[in-house]
Amino acid sequence: MGEDNKLVIPVERVQQVIYLIRGQKVMLDRDLAQLYGVETRILNQAVRRNAERFPLVIPSDLKFSKNVYSFTQEGIAMLSGVLRSPRAIQVNIAIMHAFVRLREEKAFGVKPSLLTGFRFQRF
User: Fold this and answer.
1) CB 31 within 8 A of CB 17
2) Alpha-carbon span 89 to 4, nearest angstrom
3) Staple partner for 4: which of 41, 42, 47, 86, CB 3.0–4.6 Å?
4) What secondary structure letter does DSSP report for 53?
5) Spatial distance between the Cα atoms of 111 and 88, rounded to a whole number of angstroms
6) For the chain, what is the domain count?
7) Predicted pLDDT of residue 17
8) Could you give the CA distance from residue 63 to residue 14 in angstroms, rounded to a whole number?
9) Residue 57 resides in a domain
């Protein structure tokens, strides 16, 4: 197995770079690029080349500065189809876990570490 298959990114590391901008939880292109192990310009170029995956109708990528892009959870999920590598898959899994933990923390009012291993069901 290659080095990428052993990559594990702590959810806590991902949570440190999730920001609240205009009421949306987002990640910045530079932070995503660092996690994915690519240059920011390469990540943005891949997004531009696959613009149909990032429709402007839904807020999957909010542009709040001339050179910095932010991505919601939905936009980040689309990155796995654009950045095709074993590392990209593992990074996306870690990012999705981080967003879920933040939602659970807000919903249940407890630290995410206390929620680990529990599944919540709606009755």
Assistant:
1) yes
2) 10
3) 86
4) G
5) 27
6) 1
7) 92
8) 21
9) yes
Q: Report phi then psi at 121, rounded to 5.
A: -120, 145
2: amino acid identity, one letter: G
Q: Is residue 120 part of a domain?
A: no
pLDDT in tens, the chain (123 residues): 444 445 578 888 899 999 988 788 889 889 999 999 999 999 989 988 988 887 653 344 556 666 788 888 888 888 878 888 888 888 988 899 899 888 887 777 655 454 444 443 333
Tokens of 90: 């593992």
Query: How many other C-beta atoms can be found within 10 angstroms of the C-beta atom of residue 88?
Result: 19
At residue 122, the pLDDT reads: 38
Here the tokens at position 106 are: 């807000």
Residue 122 domain flag: no
Specify which residues 63 forms β-bridges with: 69
